[in-house]
Amino acid sequence: MSPHPTRTAALWVPDWPVLAAMAVRDVPAHVPAATHDGRRVVAVSATARAQGVRRGMRRRRARECCPELELLDVDDARDAREFEPVALAAETVVAGLEITRPGLLLLPAAGASRYHGSDAALAEALVARVAERTGHESQVGVADGILAAVLAAREAAVVPPGRSAAFLAPRPARDLVHVTARPDAAVAVDELVDLLGRLGVRTLGALAALPPATVEGRFGDLGAWAHRLARGEDLRPPARRRVEPDVAVSAELDPPAERVDVATFAARRLSEDLHDQLVARSLVAGRLRITARTVEGDDLERTWRLDGPGAMSPARLTDKVRWQLEGWLTTTSVRAGRAARAGRGGGRGGERGGSPGGADVVPGVAPLARLSLTAEEVVPAGAEQPRLWGASSGEDARAHRALGRVQGILGGDAVLRVQVQGGRDVTDRVHLVPFGEDVARPRDPALPWPGALPSPAPALVPVEPQDVVVLDAAGRPVVVDARLAMSGEPATVRWPAPPEEDAPRARAAAAPHGTVAPGPGSTRAVVDWAGPWPLAERWWTPAPRRRVHVQVLLDDGRGLLLASARGRWTVEGLYD
C-alpha cells in the first residue's frame, strides 16, 4: 500500500440521476420513477426498486414490474446543474471538495475530522448539512484512498486508518465501477472485470495481490488504475509523481456573459487551449478547477475530477465547464446560495483553517466577466508523435477553433452538425445539433427499426424534398395504390417547371444544392432501379403515414432516392 494514503471522505446521494429528474419534472417522491436512455433503465428510485425495477432493464420489462412507473430521460447536464446546491452545502463543512460525477463528492477528511472530533462526527455533519440545505438524504464514508471511501459511503461506514486494503480485499472486482465518472468509462471497467473474472481474478484482494508490473503490462493503463485502487492507494501514487506546476488558462468575457451558452463558447476555446498545452508538455491532469468572476466581484470556484480514459479531451472538459456554469447560473443554485449566505454560521472545518472554502462561494445571476480553467495534479504522460494528417496533425483543432469563432459571432445555433439518429427514412434519421454540443439523440440508432431503408444512406438530403413526376415506359404516371403497390416500373423522372413568377426563386433555391436536380423542366431516363420499400407508420392513428421509397439510377449517372406519399413523388436524397 502507498506509505501515505490520503484520508478521504466520500459523500454519495443514492439514485441521484432519477432524483434530479424528478425534481425538474415535479414528480412527487411517492411516485415510482426511473431514468431511461432509450435502451435500458439507468437509475431507479427507491419506490420503483421496491416494486422490482432494476438498472439495466428494458422499458417493457420495467413496465411489467411497475405499470405506473414514470420513465424520465437521461440528461447529464441536468444532473450536474441540480447537484450544485448539494456541493454548496457540503462546502460549508469541508473545503476543497471535488465532484467525481453528479451524485458523488470527494472531500479531504484529515483536517476536517480533527476539527469535528472524529471521522464519524464529520460524516454526521455533512449528512445533516446536506439534508438541511437541500432536503436530500446522503451517505458519507471515510477511508484511506478513493475506492475505499466511495464503497464506505455506499454503506455509510468509517474505515479505520490503515484498514482500507483489508476492507477492499473480499469485495468483488466489479465494485471498481462505482468510482467511474462516465458511462463509457463504466463500460471499459465492466469489460476489464469480465476479462479478470475469466482469468480467475474475481475479488479486489486477488487483483491487489498481482505484481503491479504484470498487471500494467497485460492490461495497460486501465489495469494499472484498477490495481492501484484495489490496493487502497491514491490514483496517482506520490512516489512516482514528479512535481509539475499547474497549467492554467483564462479569458476576459467582453461583453460579460449573461447566458450559459455564451460563456460556453469561451469555455470551449479555453478547453482546447488547456488541452493543447498539456499535450505539448506531455502532461496529464487529475483535476480541473473552474473559476469564474462576476461583474459584481464575486468569485465562483469548483473542482472536478478527471480520472479515466479520455477525460482530458477538449469535449469532455467543455462538458464539465458547461455543466458547472449551468449549476451556477440557474435559479436552483441561486436559491441555494442565498440560503447558504443567510444560514452560514461559525466553525472552520476546512483543511486550511479559518472559514470553509465554500464560505465565499455564493452564486448569483450577475454576468460573468472572467473565466479560468486550471489543470491540477499535473503529472508526466507519454509523449505523442504527431501524424501527418488527422486529429493530431492540428488541422482538426484549427477547424474547431474557426467554427468556435463563427459561433461566438453569430450564436450557438449558427453552426450545426449532423447526428445520425434512429428512424426509418432519411429525413427521420437526420438530427441537427449545435456544433460542439453533446446532445442526446431523440431516437437511438442502435435500436432495431423494422422497415428502415437499406444501406447505404444518401450522401445529400435536401432541406425541402423536390417534387418530381415519375412515368412508366408508356409515359403514364406511376401511382401507388392503397396496398402500397406501384402501377408500373419507373422509366422516366421529370422535374416540373414552376410557375413563371416562381421561376427565379426556384432556380436560386436549387443552386446551393448543386446536383440534387438537373433543373426545373428537365427529364431524365431511368437506367436501373431498386425497390419499392413500402412503409406504413402510425396506422392506428387518425393520420397514418403511408409511403413508398424507390432508388433510381438516371442516365447521367445520378442516383436518387424517391418517395411517394398521397399521390406525390419527391426527391428525398442523392447518392454520390
How much helicity do the residues have? 25-40%
The CATH class of the domain at 7-168, by name, is Alpha Beta
Rg over CA atoms, rounded to whole Å, is 29 Å
The residue ranges in which pLDDT falls below 50 over 5 or more consecutive positions are: 236-243, 331-364, 382-395, 506-515
Tell me the major beta sheet. Answer: 6 strands, antiparallel, barrel
Could you tell me how far the N terminus lies from the C terminus, measured between alpha carbons in angstroms?
A: 60 Å
* Gross geometry: elongated
Helix and strand content put the structural class at alpha+beta
Spatial strand sequence of the major β-sheet: 16-17-18-19-20-21
Number of helices: 17
| Average pLDDT, all residues | 76
Share in β-strands: 15-25%
Report the count of strand segments.
21
Features:
MutS, DNA mismatch repair protein, domain I, Dna Ligase, domain 1, 576 residues, six-stranded antiparallel beta barrel, 17 helices, elongated
Structure description:
Belongs to the DNA polymerase type-Y family. InterPro entries: DNA/RNA_pol_sf (IPR043502), Rev_trsase/Diguanyl_cyclase (IPR043128), SulA_CellDiv_inhibitor (IPR050356), UmuC (IPR001126). This is DNA polymerase Y family protein. One of its GO terms (biological process) is DNA repair. It is a single chain. The protein is α+β, with helices and mostly antiparallel strands and 576 residues long. Among the domains are: 162 residues, MutS, DNA mismatch repair protein, domain I; 121 residues, 2-Layer Sandwich (Dna Ligase, domain 1), CATH 3.30.1490; 110 residues, no CATH class. The chain contains 17 helices and 21 strands. The chain has a six-stranded antiparallel β-barrel. Strands 5-6-1-7 form a four-stranded antiparallel sheet, with helices on both faces. Strand 18 and strand 19 form a beta hairpin. Helix 4 packs across helix 13.
